[in-house]
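Subject: design request, 80 residues
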């Protein structure tokens, strides 16, 4: 999800329960489900991701994706 997201998510998760006191996210990744019907499109996106992010930042792309799918988020848990 971008640099620093793991730290913010760790803080949020640990606030939810003591059960997560030792939890740590692996750095540098975001996780999204993909339907089989979109698999080839996602493969093409991944192959061209470096070029794509020269035109649109990761942060702007993630915001657009969240808006498109009407997912609520709090920026304090997404970025440093």
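Subject: RE: design request

Done. Sequence follows.
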């Amino acid at each position: 999800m971008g640099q620093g997201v793991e730290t913010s998510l760790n803080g949020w998760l640990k606030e939810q329960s003591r059960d997560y006191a030792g939890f740590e996210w692996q750095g540098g990744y975001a996780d999204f489900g993909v339907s089989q019907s979109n698999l080839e499109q996602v493969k093409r996106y991944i192959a061209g991701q470096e070029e794509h992010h020269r035109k649109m930042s990761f942060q702007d792309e993630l915001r657009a994706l969240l808006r498109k799918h009407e997912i609520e988020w709090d920026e304090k848990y997404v970025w440093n």
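The radius of gyration is 15 Å.
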